[in-house]
Amino acid sequence: MVLPGLVDVHTHLRVPGGEHEEDFATGTAAALAGGFTQILAMPNTSPPLSAPAAMATAVAHAQRDIRCDVGLFAGASPGLTRHLPALAQTAVALKIYLNDTYGPLRVEDLPTLHACFRHWPRHKPIAMHAEKQSVAVGIGLAAAHDRPVHFCHISRREEIELIAQAKGRGLPITCEVTPHHLFLTRADAKRLGPLADMRPLLGTADDAAALWAHIEDTIDCIATDHAPHMLAEKRSPTPPPGVAGLETALPLLLTAVAQQRLTLERLIQLMSTNPRRIFNLPQQPNTQVEVEMTPAIIQNEQMHSKCGWTPFAGMTVAGRVSRVILRGQVVFENGRLLAPSGSGKTINN
Ligand code: DOR
Ligand code: ZN
Ligand code: ZN
Asked: What percent of the chain shows pLDDT beyond 90?
């Protein structure tokens, strides 16, 4: 089967400051191995991408190291919103964290939220990490400022139902869900312990059922929230939240296609067409992902991500990526990565 190049609008590539967990070369290797040819990297780095100096460092490393196309998020930070117009010169979109997660980026006051909407250029997307009632805050801002807001990793029944309602009223909002919130629940969290700790937390079986029920009409994208942390860190007394996801997303969704939980056509909308449209990302000519529909078992040893593990290890999936072609070049074939560092393009929109 041949698919278009997949687009992941939510990855953590850890540059600058977290290169022991992932860097642009390893993160984009994982992307290609998973069928993603275009990805957006999150700004909760160390320092965060909230000021021009950190952004310049990230761009320089990206240009040197990436193997697929990468766009960068700028991160909203109280006291630093004056930098947003400068950051928008290179960043593809703005990320606003309304709730607790990994790293210090957080916006918890309304004046800063309004400043973000005023200083961030209208033609560039705004994405939010918003959980529970914070989703209502994001919807209110989209309505008040009359501009699109994209909600990251929606995970709960109450959230997806509120988004469905707001979309029904014609508000300009979109949302993504992650494979881990579709395929894992709190029962798995019990089994996996810190290896299944992430933000948002895994939901109940009812939450997952609500996400599946909205896969056709309310959910716009599947995004991985690829958030690699080393096993030693996850097993430490203070495990950081997050799991890798770039290399397992497509095999899991292909399994859902084989089980007739969604169509292949819908998978392509969720993993390529919609994310590219919502984030206003360029087309990639002569680019495709070839997939083989043979059962396979997910194994930690196959991962190209620096972290080298996945919460899905041991699961049987219905298909795998056999070949990826980016701009006419074979960049991945039968488990072998062929794209050199620096062969990807940084994205501007
Ligand atoms: O689990 C998470 N990990 N959720 C986030 O929002 C951030 C991420 C990370 O950067 O590790
Ligand atoms: Zn998040
Ligand atoms: Zn994230």
From this structure: 99
Q: Which ligand is nearest to the CA of 153?
A: 2
CA of 103 to the centre of ligand 3 (A): 10
Buried b (16+ CB within 10 A) or exposed e, 220-245: bbbbbbbbbbbeebbeeeeebbbbbb
State how beta strands 149-151 and 126-129 pair: parallel
Cβ(75)–Cβ(44) under 8 Å?
Answer: yes
pLDDT, tens digit, 9 for 90 and up, residues 38-57: 999 999 999 999 999 999 99
CATH for 60: 3.20.20.140
Does residue 148 lie within any of the structural domains?
yes
Q: How far away, in angstroms, is 283 Cα from ligand 3 center?
A: 24
Q: Is residue 342 part of a domain?
A: no
With respect to residue 343, please indicate whether it lies within any of the assigned structural domains.
Answer: no
CA dist 68 and 29 (Å) reads 8
On whether residue 183 sits in a domain, the answer given is yes
Domain containing residue 165: 2-337
Domains: count for the chain: 1
The closest of 270, 237, 248 to 321, measured between CA atoms, is 248
Minimum CA distance residue for ligand 1 atom 3 = 242
Q: Is 319 helix (H, G, I), strand (E, B) or coil?
A: coil
pLDDT band at residue 125 using 50, 70 and 90 as cut-offs: very high
Q: Using DSSP, how many helices (H) and how many strands (E) does the chain show?
A: 13, 15
pLDDT tens readout for residues 291-328:
999 999 999 999 999 999 999 999 999 999 999 999 99
